[in-house]
Write a structure and sequence with these properties.
Structural class: mainly alpha
Order of helices and strands: HHHHHHHHHHHHHH
Number of helices: 14
Strand content: under 5%
Helix content: over 70%
Shape: globular
Length: 304
């Protein structure tokens, strides 16, 4: 019942997003605008509010952050090895690599909030704030490298700093963390305002994700998409479990970490692949396969 009560609502909202798109009630312009609203307004506000209301003595799990970063680098290395061993073309390499280690923040936050509550949101939010800049740098670097460019250390460092200071999700996490360390409290009318604002965040995000799922490229890229899903949904959760145990992560932080390691790949890989001349059809197929199969590791993670 825990699995049914937790995962069923998420996939129903994803399916609803797809149905609304197919029936013409939403269109690409609406989905793009709703995604921007969630990314730049509602989601950062939710992170600020949830993390800001945590108490200072709850602390931050350094082991969780170290395990998350280690898992991302491991999946990145595995993707590069797979590109070489399976002779994946340079045009497909960037999309494939991203699909192996990028994660869907919205699905993760919806699960964490349902299963773990505000304490889980704090752990997951801080973990996301730590790994997102690293993931962005790795994604851009591999896309530029396989497009024929040669990014320097200075360029990578510049992009890392830019991703760190300009990402709204990271800003929301940091601002919430600092607020929780102050002596300030949210007045009731501010709490009610945040509650109204954030109540729309995750449903709108999931509907937008469902509407953005594309079957295009799935048939022609099924093999490579499944290979990426194998790294993302099999290798990463297994190694993540060992990393969390190795860094002695327990309790709520452990469950938040397992959900993080088991998430499907991010829909953002399609946009970034298009911007940096990689295979968008493969990106679409990888997103679809990863999303459909993610219920298996997510189910096992929740049972653990």
């Amino acid at each position: 019942m825990l699995i049914l009560n937790t995962l069923f609502p998420l996939f129903i909202l994803l399916l609803l997003g797809r149905i609304l798109k197919s029936s013409g009630m939403t269109d690409p312009r609406f989905l793009a605008m709703s995604d921007r609203l969630v990314y730049y307004v509602f989601f950062p506000v939710m992170l600020f509010w949830k993390i800001g209301t945590s108490t200072p003595d709850q602390g931050v799990s350094a082991g969780l952050c170290l395990a998350g970063l280690s898992g991302v680098f491991l999946a990145f290395a595995a993707s590069l090895a797979a590109i070489r061993y399976f002779k994946i073309s340079a045009f497909q390499a960037g999309s494939f690599c991203q699909a192996c280690f990028r994660f869907n923040t919205y699905i993760g936050m919806a699960l964490v909030l349902t299963v773990l509550g505000e304490d889980g949101v704090r752990h997951f939010g801080i973990l996301a704030g730590v790994v997102i800049p690293v993931i962005n740098v790795l994604s851009v670097s591999v896309l530029v490298w396989y497009s024929g460019g040669n990014p320097s250390i200075r360029e990578n460092l510049k992009y890392f700093v830019r991703a760190l200071v300009s990402n709204p999700l990271i800003i929301g996490c940091v601002a919430g963390f600092l607020f929780s360390r102050s002596d300030l409290v949210f007045p009731v009318f501010v709490q009610n305002t945040f509650s109204l604002m954030t109540s729309v965040t995750l449903p709108l995000a999931l509907i937008s994700i469902g509407g953005s799922l594309r079957f295009k490229g799935l048939a022609d890229h099924a093999g490579v998409s499944l290979l990426a899903a194998g790294i993302k949904l099999l290798l990463l959760p297994l190694s993540g479990f060992l990393l969390l145990k190795g860094f002695q992560v327990t309790g709520t932080a452990f469950t938040a970490g397992m959900i993080f390691f088991s998430l499907p790949t991010s829909t953002a890989i399609y946009v970034l692949s298009g911007q940096l001349n990689s295979d968008t059809d493969l990106a679409s197929g990888a997103i679809m396969v990863s999303t459909l199969l993610s219920f298996i590791p997510l189910t096992l993670s929740l049972l653990i």
